[in-house]
Design goal:
The mean pLDDT is 83. 55% of the residues lie in helices and 0% in strands. By secondary structure, it is mostly helical.
Amino acid sequence: MNFNIDTKKFEKLAKEKFGTERNLFINMIRMLHPKEDYIKYYNERRGNFSAAKHNKRPFQKDEILCIEKLLNVPFVSLLEGEEIKFNFNPEGIRYTAYLDSIEEYERLSNLISEGESSPLLNYDEFDKNIFQYILEYNSSNGLSFFVY
């Protein structure tokens, strides 16, 4: 498998969802660094974003999760030679475990569709469940949520 980002695919999705890649990156900054001056942060870090998009440096784990949530696709769909799969759940268990917020666990546990169980009890598109992600991200609040 090729692990390079398909730049054209990435640019197309960013423009469809946010109008410009700049707007995508600003939304990422707002999600990842809400207390930062996002324009200043953008000006300081836009070169890193561009380098990652053009396969000159890897995206960081938190950036990958943010891109998945904002573009509503699994990151693997952005790789060269992969089909884009739009069935990614932005309210996913992976993102919840990564955030490690009790409020996020509670919010996700309340997202029960008619006739279905809580998303916390299901497997995601990578065939993993919440407990596997809790262990992967060392999510202490996730353990607390299920124990108490």
